[in-house]
């Protein structure tokens, strides 16, 4: 057994068998390598971001970009015959998150929803952003889009709202923004610092005060 703390030979390659199982029990061990992963990710050109810039709006409020990943597609078509789909997070969860964000003063939320299907599949979300809300929130749908563009937007948003999906989990690792982890149960374990969803009642979608503090901190970056 090699002692990694005392081994100084930088030419040695260490192999960690079943690394996924290791990170499941020690998610904090992602943290020392996150910056290296981000550096590697940004070595190549990336798709142009479609988030609304702060200068593109006449709103006096501070603009916060929000990427909502709603996993559908194959988990729906492949599992529909079994009834309840374990990995499917209901639309109502995401609608509840957006409804709470609208209560935050001094912010304009530029929300982009990434999923598969048609807009009519997301009526719950449409109901959270009506004409009277246009000064507080803008809602855009990106359905069946290019997977690389979708992933880059998840990585780049000020706030990432995650699904039970490795796709948004990996994006969360690379993101410097706020991460709202998906509702449990899920076999992935959130990294330290990620916001967790409440489990006691629908109103506890997340810790509201913690979210406010983090969004305010995002504005000061």
Q: What is the H/E string?
A: HHEHHEHEHEHEH
Strand content: 5-15%
Judged by helices, strands and strand pairing, the structural class is alpha/beta
Query: What is the domain total for the residues?
Result: 1
Average pLDDT confidence is 83
- Give the count of helical stretches: 8
Q: Kindly report the CATH topology.
A: Rossmann fold
- Shape type: globular
The share of residues in helices is 25-40%
Q: How many strand units?
A: 5
What is the alpha-carbon Rg in Å? Answer: 19 Å
Q: How is the biggest beta sheet arranged? A: 5 strands, parallel
List the uncertain runs: none
Give the strand line-up of the largest sheet: 3-2-1-4-5
The separation of the N and C termini measures 43 Å
Quickly name the level 1 CATH class. Answer: Alpha Beta
CATH architectural label = 3-Layer(aba) Sandwich
């Amino acid at each position: 057994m090699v002692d990694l703390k005392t081994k100084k030979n930088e030419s040695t390659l260490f192999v960690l068998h079943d690394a996924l199982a290791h990170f499941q029990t020690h998610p904090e061990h992602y943290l020392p390598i996150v910056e290296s992963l981000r550096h590697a990710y940004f070595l190549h050109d990336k798709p142009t971001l479609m988030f609304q810039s702060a200068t593109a709006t006449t709103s006096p409020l501070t603009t916060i970009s929000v990427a909502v990943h709603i996993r559908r597609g194959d988990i729906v078509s492949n599992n529909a015959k079994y009834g309840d789909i374990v990995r499917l997070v209901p639309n109502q969860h995401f609608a509840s998150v957006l409804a709470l964000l609208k209560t935050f003063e001094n912010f304009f939320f530029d929300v982009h929803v990434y999923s598969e299907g048609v807009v009519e599949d997301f009526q719950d979300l449409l109901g959270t952003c009506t004409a009277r809300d246009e000064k507080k929130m803008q809602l855009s749908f990106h359905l069946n889009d290019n997977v690389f563009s979708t992933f880059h937007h998840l990585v780049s948003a000020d706030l990432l709202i995650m699904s039970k999906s490795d796709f948004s989990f990996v994006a969360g690792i690379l993101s410097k923004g706020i991460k709202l982890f998906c509702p449990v149960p899920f076999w992935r374990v959130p990294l330290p610092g990620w916001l967790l969803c409440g489990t006691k009642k629908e109103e506890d979608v997340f810790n509201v005060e913690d979210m406010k503090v983090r969004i305010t901190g995002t504005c000061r970056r």
